[in-house]
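Hey team,

Filing this mostly as a record. A colleague (T.K.) asked me to run one chain through the structure pipeline before their review meeting, and I want the input and output archived in the tracker in case anyone asks later how it was produced. No errors, nothing strange. Just documentation.

Input sequence:
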Amino acid sequence: MRRIAARLPQLFRPRLVVPPSLRIDECTTRKRGRWHVARSPAPVEPNVPHPLGSQTVDYRLPSTWPEFGVLELEGGRVFGSHGWVLTEDGAVLPELSWYGEPSERIRVPSRLAGTTELRGSCLSLVSDWSCRNFAHFLLDGLGRLAVFLDAGFTLNDVDHVYCPTPPSAPAEHLFERFGIPVDKRVWATSRTSVRADRLFVPSLPAAALAYPPWLATSLRRLVDLAPGGPRHRRLYVSRRGYSRQAISEYEVEALLSGRGFEIYDATDVRSRPEDFDRAEMVVGAHGAGLANIVFCRPGTRVIEIVPTDNAYPFYFSLAVAAGLEYSYLVARSVQERSASAFGPSPFDFDLELDELARVLPAAGEPIT
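Output structure:
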């Protein structure tokens, strides 16, 4: 009986299905949708990352940045913690998601029970994984606010804001910094479904795993960083206790501490954008905490430790957007997935401490 009782919620839960897909241009011609341009297509400026050590990775950036804009949809719906956008008749708009095109991974309940009706207008800032990963929260989620503002809107133009549930205390603080009113926030959960008289959904502010050059300036402006102040901090963004850390993490931290670096926990409640604004150098393995380099001032030196099983251009493109001095050091992952594997690697990596030591300045030595 206990087993049956435990299974009852699953038995009565609607099954997940892949909904039909609709393109934005089809939505604006066949449905009640309007497209508001925020940024026109633009070429991607060529930029080659500087490798440190004996290994290199092949970062592939898009050849052009696409058009970014905001879809205004009458009677539009948003479902779940990934912020998937649906028309009134149940078609999904994958161009507004991380996938950018129809995907078997976009699944919604066969019947959307308990949809919350929002009278008036609603802006959605929820993006894939933005409720559980700080980088997706900040760059893909709150970054959509920058697109919304660039399209000529303000937060006064909407009655509600569908918000990603903050994955950490520092993420929660950013709602105040971004000026999103408390009384307008509607929190996303995995089962939340909302429908608004008018729904506004900005583009994902990224393309081909890379971030466009205007994003860093926009996010720095939105958090209203005070100008000036000394740049004197050296930060090592630690992944201790998480997957994809150095197998010799304690030795890595000891080396960096000896070179004047703070061992920085980006999930700590005291973490603030000002920490990176005051940094002269940032070192860290590829991971969500490195999204904070968007708050660094131009010229800040950044060294990304890139595991061989997790070589993506997110933070290289973000560093270019922010005008940072970026370089990277490759570390061999303890296991390698197939080329078709999806998502971040779960594997730790083996970092050559001698290679890292050679590229770090001594404590008190000027950053060059």
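Quick notes for T.K.: Residues 233-359 form a domain with the Rossmann fold fold (CATH 3.40.50). The chain has nine helices and 19 strands.
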